[in-house]
Amino acid sequence: VLAEDVKNRYVKTLENLIPAMKAVDEFYIFDNSGEEIVMISRGNHSNFELLVDYQSLPNWFNDHVIKHIS
Prior knowledge:
- By secondary structure, this protein is an alpha+beta fold.
- It has 3 helices and 3 strands, in the order ααβββα.
- The chain has a 3-stranded antiparallel β-sheet, with no helix packed on it.
- The radius of gyration is 13 Å and the shape is globular.
């Protein structure tokens, strides 16, 4: 797979995150960019819960979730 294709797919996946969260009954969001996989958020149509300290959120989550729900 070409590097450009990987980059484009990554961006499209993040752009689809908010619509996917709205389309399901419950969601669980994990960050696997570190040494351990960490659940950072969960919620449903009426509840959004952060499970980690705000300062430890990954940049992709801030850019593609927090900025769109606050």
